[in-house]
Amino acid sequence: MKLYSPLFIGFRLLVYALMLFGVAEAIYFDAAHPMEDGYFGELTFTEIGQETILFVMFLFFLVISRKWLEISTIALLASLFYLASFIREFNFLVEHWIYLVLPVLALAGWILYRDRKKFIQSVESFFRVPASGLLVSGLLITYIFSRLFGRSKFWRLLYHDESYRLAKAATEEGLELLGNSLMLIAAAEFFLYYWFEVKIKNEKV
User: Fold this and answer.
1) Which stretches of the chain drop beneath a pLDDT of 50?
2) Which bin fits 41, alpha (ψ -120 to 50), beta or left (φ > 0)?
3) C-alpha distances in Å from residue 32, one per residue of 37, 48, 51, 62
4) What are 57-103's pLDDT values in tens digits?
5) How far apart are CA 146 and CA 153, in angstroms?
6) Is the dihedral of CA 46, 48, 49, 53 positive or negative?
7) 3-class SS at 161?
8) How far from the centroid of its chain's Cα atoms is residue 143's Cα?
C-alpha cells in the first residue's frame, strides 16, 4: 500500500475523524459530569488526555530521533519540549515545577550547542515532511490561541457575572486538547512518512 493512495488516505481521514469525535465527546462528558473541584479539573478526560498526548509525543520524537538521522537534532529538541510541557501539566501537584523543567531546558541547550552544525539541515529536513504543517498548527492552537481565547477579559464581555468561568474553562481546555490531538495526528503522519518513504529509501541505498 502506498502512503498517498486514495484508499489509505481515506482510511486515515476516517480514523482521525473518529479520534476528534472522541475528543469532542470527552469534553462533553466532562461538562456533563463536573467533579468536586469544579469543571474540567485535573482528573477529567480532558486533562488526562492532554497529559497522555504530551507524554506520547515525548516518547515518539525521542524514538524517531534515533531512527531518522536527518531530523535527529530537531526531533530530540521536540521530545524535550514535550517533556517540559508534560511536567508543566502537573503544576497542581508540584508547586515549584519549574525546577524540574530547568534540567530539561539545560539539556536542550546542550544538544543545540553540540549539534549546532547540523541544526539548520535538520530543521530543513523536518519541515519538508508534509505533516510538519499540521504539527505547527497544533502547536499554535495549544500554546497561543487557546491561551488568548481563554482570557478572562474576553469572556467578561459576553457574561455579566461569574458564570463565564464555565464557558472559559470549556473553551480553553477544549482548544488545548484539540491542538494536542492535531499534534498527535501529525506524529502519526510523521511515522507513516518515515515508514513508507524514508525507511524504504534508505534500504535501497
Assistant:
1) none
2) beta
3) 14, 17, 21, 37
4) 999 999 999 999 999 999 999 999 999 999 998 877 777 889 999 99
5) 14
6) positive
7) coil
8) 9
Can you tell me which residue has the cell 498548527?
137
- In the Cβ-directed half-sphere of 18, how many Cα atoms lie within 13 Å? 5
- Average pLDDT of the residues of the chain: 91
Burial of 190 (C-beta count, 10 Å sphere; 0-12/13-18/19+): buried
What residue ranges do the domains of the chain occupy?
A: 6-204
Amino acid residing at 171: T
Amino acid at 195: W
Determine the 3-state secondary structure of 173 from DSSP.
Answer: helix
Answer for the pair 51, 179: CB distance below 8 angstroms, yes or no: no
What are the beta bridge partners of residue 38? 35
